[in-house]
Design brief:
The complex is a heterotrimer of chains A (about 180), B (about 400) and C (about 100). Chain A is mostly helical and about 180 residues long. In chain A, about 70% of the residues lie in helices and about 0% in strands. Chain A is globular, with a radius of gyration of 21 Å. The N and C termini of chain A lie far apart (about 60 Å). Chain B has two domains: about 260 residues, no CATH class; about 45 residues. Chain B is globular, with a radius of gyration of 23 Å. The chains are: A mainly alpha (about 180), B mainly alpha (about 400), C mainly alpha (about 100).
Chain lengths: ~180, ~400, ~100
Amino acid sequence: MTVLQIIFLGISVIIVIGALMTVSSPNLVHAALWLILALAGVAAIFVLLEASFLAVVQVAVYIDAISILIVIAVMLTRRAMGETERQINRSWLLAAFAAFMVFSGILSLFSQVPQLANTPSDLVESSEFYIQELGKALVNVDQSIIPFEVASVLLLAAMIGAIFIARPPERAGGDS
Amino acid sequence: MGDPFTLIADFLRDLLLGFGLDPGLTTAILKFVGAAVTATIALTLTFFTIWLERKLIARFQDRLGPNRVGPYGLFQTVADFAKLLTKEVLVPEGADRSVFMIAPLLVVMSVVGLWAVVPFAPTLFGSDINVGVLYLVSIGSVGTLGIMMAGLSSNNKYALLGAFRTVAMMLSYAVPMILTLLIPTMLAGSMGLTKIVEAQNPVWFVILSPIAAFIFYISSLAEVGRTPFDLMEAESEIVAGFHIEYSGISFGMFFVAEFLHAFTIAVLTVTLFFGGWQGPGAEAFPILGFVYFLIKTAILYFVIIWIRATFPRLRIDTINSISWKILTPLALAAVIFTAIIDKLTPGDGWARVPLHLAGSVILIGLTLIAFRAYARSIRKQSEGSGKSLAQTSEAGS
Amino acid sequence: MIPLSWYLILAASIFCIGLYGVLARRNAIAILMGIELMLNAVNINLVAFWRYLTPSIINGQVFAIIVFAVAASEVAVGLALIISIYRRKTTVAVEEINLMKW
């Protein structure tokens, strides 16, 4: 057991607990906060994988933007479902069974991955190099400029759609 | 001789190695010591900045300010904090206890976390991570989360209102702030703060892009919620905002975080736009660089206090429209201008100043023309509807 | 050093916990949270494969960034829909939103 492995196990335990509480907590605000804990753990996993850019973006996008959106939505709809109301549907046992089957299915697929016991080779370049590579790859015609542009169009469409849908009906077309 | 910081670090390292610890553990211990020292200095500094702020505001308002405890009232803050520490920490009934207690910790953590990447002197910085600029954005956002949690868990209408106001304002001002952070990144060609400071060797970025520096300064003021953007705790409207239910040390944490954050804004603006520790002779004598850094920070911090003493509080709708209608388009235009000009004049140093400056002047001119057109249209509208002139001139300016 | 399988198992367990959340919760916002967990599990896999198998080709990280963008737009539109439905029907329980079901 090296120090790195202990750190990994600690982070994993935090993530799994956070994820379990997210799907099981009856209080939705708490569920959202547990989700934030789990996502922060994923950011730490990215640091372990030496993807520092992704780790920081994970914190900025998920913890800043997405989780605050979720918390606000929970607050806005708080009156609809109180804590006393049933939070899981009738077929939750079936759902748990399905999730477990998917999990075991994925685990059995692992036997087909030949590099399963691989340990990472040291990165040959400085970590600065990989960030520059990432930036170039995103706008390189030979690599991934099309997915990048499609993603930006998707974001724009999502923004317009969200504003249009969430507008209160009585004020639609009113003050701009 | 010229570098006491490395000297101390080397001394500690030799000492620990002399005890027979292995090198990896020694590095880890040194990192922890460094973090503890930085956090302690940052938090202790707050005692001084709170005193400074009260004293200066008093002077602006033609009062004396604290002058009883210690010389010039210097220990007034210490006395205040001793009082806060002895008070009971109350948790209101119906509050969400654990969330309520974690919230102030998160807020303090987000502010102290900012100090981890700031290069104070050529050889004095916590961690030179290569995504420093993004790190500033993401750690700063944890504070928003803390304020949100405080507002939600307090079981108090005013706290909730304060939290919603805060989030609305922080989300709108994060947009121009992140956009302007792109400009130093582009000019330096790196997101690491150390490299950004080094790239400002002959020319500070504030000369290349005064608009970006201005927008960054304003929008980070709004991020912290300093006057004139202190809507989230407007005492005349929503009592105290998100920290209304806090008492004792947990209120003290919000208090410290707020004042430390104001000082941190000055620190960050100096690092990103005013050359950090750059100055004559700073490379050779790092201690001199630290002194330059402190002087620049003190000047910018004074301006923050000056703004607080001078401007009245803005209205909630004006605050958001300043961000979306003025700062965001201006920041976008500045990013585009800087990118194009930077591509046209790839040179270093003073060679690229004239074009950048010309770009800024054009941009400022266009903004002023747009303002004039907007003010005229408002005036025309109000003349039609017969409002008083006082209101219109306020809206147009 | 950490073998690749540890990351894959972690990702698989997060994915399945998220899947359970999506299938079992009644509240539409809780379902969105489950989806976020699943997307994050996928991201861990993508970055782990980049780091362990092809560190010289940056595509794993590029995919992860596109997943971020998709997640952000999904949450924005999803929450807008939920709030819109809440305004019209004052409910966020998914089985009561059955207008288009037959």
